[in-house]
Amino acid sequence: MKFFGKSRNRPSATWRQTTDRAFSMIDNGRYEDAGALLVRAADLEPWLSDSWYNLALLHKFRHDWEQARIAGLRAVALLDRDQDAPDWWNLGIAATALHDWPLARRAWQEYGLPVPQGDGAIEADYGSAPVRLSPQGESEVVWGRRLDPCRVEVLSIPLPSSGRRWGEVVLHDGVPNGERVTLDGDVYPVFDEIELWAPSPVPTFVVVLQAATEKDRDALERAVAAAGFAAEDWSSSVRLLCRACSEGRMVTGSGEPGDEAEFGHSTGMPGGSGEGLPPHDHGHLGRAGGVEWLAERECGIAAPTGLVRGLLDAWAAEAPDARDYRDLEEVC
């Protein structure tokens, strides 16, 4: 990939060759070698905003947010245009990672995005969004609520392989990597997680339910939600996709948390909770019309340790002939 040529000023051939070599190294994960070359490029053309933008981008890849902020400020100081410059977007991500809220607000406003005024953390409602957890590994696309242009609060219950929990806030990149289209035709870009921004104290449990009907399953989800936490029927909300499909345009459900999660993997990778399915599965596994209901369900529950068993006992006691559970285990 190449990230230069935004400025009206024409950089030297040496600068271009050095920068091109640096991004070839980035593509191969050689960040240290790439950094040395990008520093050299900045020495060659210190007046060029692209020199500092490229350094800021490298520091973002390395999660070195202090250096990303320093280089990003140099880049925006040399810009020759006001709005829509990616320099401001990357600076906004770095400032958010550092909890530098005045700079984050300025960056989003300079980029052309409306953000609420204030001194503390940006807390707005930018709608629902799918985010890809662990994009470099056994990735999983879950749904959440956008708090600002680069943070999502996770409202699905992630599978334990992701290492993420319900209620966590993740920092995400600004370039979409795939799309999800709801049954109503609404299109949501999928953003890749950069890192965990705020952890959740709420553990994740997995339990095997015996739910005679969908209404029995729904009753548990409502009871846990009423307590302020979440339950999700993974047997119907998780589908297994290859990486190419996960990063493409996929039809999803309503776009609500728990409606559908995706366990994306490279072809041939073990399938986690979806193991045994074919490499491509583009449909719901349990809620689609005409699919026979199976009473045994694998369910994820996000709730405190001292509360989860009581919720399950109360749910089962309401209809003992139709409801039961077993194998309750904390998994994340």
Low-confidence stretches: 1-8, 257-261, 263-290
Overall average pLDDT: 84
The number of domains is: 3
The biggest sheet, with number of strands, parallel, antiparallel or mixed sense and barrel status, is: 5 strands, mixed, barrel
Spatial order of strands in the largest sheet: 1-2-3-4-7
Note the gap between the termini. Answer: 36 Å
The secondary-structure class comes to alpha+beta
Organism: Mangrovactinospora gilvigrisea
Region (Disordered): 251-281
InterPro entries: TPR-like_helical_dom_sf
Protein name: Tetratricopeptide repeat protein
Describe the structure.
Mean pLDDT is 84; it is low at 1-8, 257-261 and 263-290. The chain has helices at residues 13-27, 31-44, 49-62, 65-77, 86-97, 101-111, 214-226, 234-237, 243-246, 305-318, and strands spanning 128-133, 140-148, 151-154, 169-172, 179-181, 187-189, 191-198, 204-211, 230-233, 238-242, 249-251, 261-265, 296-302, 323-330. It has 3 domains: 13-111, Tetratricopeptide repeat domain (Serine Threonine Protein Phosphatase 5, Tetratricopeptide repeat); 128-198, no CATH class; 204-248 and 255-330, no CATH class. With 332 residues, the chain is α+β, with helices and mostly antiparallel strands.
